[in-house]
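Appendix B, Record 12. Input sequence as logged:
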Amino acid sequence: MNLLNKTPVFLHDWSNKEGVAYDFQINLDTVNILFAAYTYENYSGEAFVLFEQDGKLFEVNGSHCSCYGLEGQWEPEETTIEALTYRLYNGKMGNESYCGNIFCNELKEFIK
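Logged structural output:
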């Protein structure tokens, strides 16, 4: 997987793996975060995390209002570069966000 050779990308309100672990309130020692974006604006938060574990690619999506955070939302879904590419170019992934969590162009560049 070529993505493993790239420097991990952390966008907006996250600057490292520890920030992701803190906001989701989980231990991330066994995962290799590749790309993570989180923004908290307009009393709401949205997050996207792409990671590798045991040779497989996963994504996590989370959101919350001002009353809560991301805790309890770490629910990985296995994904592929093809699925991500399709959603980036044919859908609205990373393009629309009430909270300002826009990461479409950065993720396109990262998975290229």
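The chain has a mean pLDDT of 91.
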